[in-house]
Amino acid sequence: MSKVKEDYYELLGTSKTATADEIKKAYRKMAMKYHPDRNPGNKEAEEMFKKISEAYEVLADEQKRAAYDRYGHAAFQGGGGGAPRGGAGGFHDPFDIFKEVFGGGGGGGGGIFDEIFGGGGGGSRGGPQRGADLRYDLEISLEEAANGVEKEISFRKPTSCEHCNGSGAEPGSRSTRCQTCGGSGQVTTSRGFFTFRQTCPTCEGAGTRIEKPCGHCNGQGRVNATTKIKVRVPAGVDTGSKLRSAGNGEAGGHGGPSGDLYIVIHVADHDVFERQGDDLFVEIPIKFTLAALGGTIQVPTLTGKATLKVPPGTQSGTTFRLRGKGMPNLRGGYQGDQLLRVHVEVPTTLSNDQRKKLEEFAVLCGDADEPMSKSFFEKAKRFFQ
Question: What is the pTM of this model?
Answer without folding.
Answer: 0.58
